[in-house]
Amino acid sequence: MILYGISTCDTCKKALKALEAAGRDVTFRDIRAQPLSEAEIDKIVMEFGDRAVNKQSTTYRGFNDFLKASDPEAQIAAQPAVMKRPVIDAGGKFYLGWDDAVQAALL
């Protein structure tokens, strides 16, 4: 299982801690330190569409008009921190965020 996020994200920390406490083998991937490949971005956007971009974030609000009008792949490639987090790859099945439904499916 791979948890994609950033090391300073409280939600990512909570998810990682809960998954490990449940005995899951989790690899944390800091998308700032190890940026996503084009194929990984495409896979995430294919799965979640524009929901993959956190439009409430300060990163997104700081985008210029051109970048805001760009597709989600370009936005995530330009600023990985704009991706909604965490994205969890559980053996090819993807989950977005850390809400009750995701927790019920993974814990």
Radius of gyration: 13 Å
Shape: globular
User: What's the β-strand tally?
Assistant: 4
Average of pLDDT: 96
The parts where pLDDT drops under 50 for at least 5 residues are: none
Structural class: alpha+beta
The termini sit apart by 12 Å
Strand order of the largest sheet: 2-1-3-4
- Helix fraction, binned, reads 40-55%
Largest β-sheet summary: 4 strands, mixed
The helix tally amounts to: 6
User: What is the N-to-C order of secondary-structure elements (H for helix, E for strand)?
Assistant: EHEHHHHEEH
Sheet-strand content, in percent, reads: 5-15%
Keyword list:
6 helices; 15% strand; 4 strands; alpha+beta; four-stranded mixed β-sheet; 43% helix; 107 residues
Question: How would you portray this structure in words?
Answer:
The chain is α+β, with helices and mostly antiparallel strands and 107 residues long. It is 43% helix and 15% strand. It is built from six helices and four strands, in the order E-H-E-H-H-H-H-E-E-H. The protein has helices spanning 10-21, 38-48, 58-61, 65-69, 72-78, 100-106; strands spanning 2-5, 27-30, 87-90, 93-96. A four-stranded mixed β-sheet has the order 2-1-3-4, sandwiched between helices. Helix 1 links the parallel strand 1 (2-5) and strand 2 (27-30). The two termini are 12 Å apart. The model has no long low-confidence stretch (mean pLDDT 96).
Give a quick summary of the entry:
This protein is of the alpha+beta class. Helix content is 43%, strand content 15%.
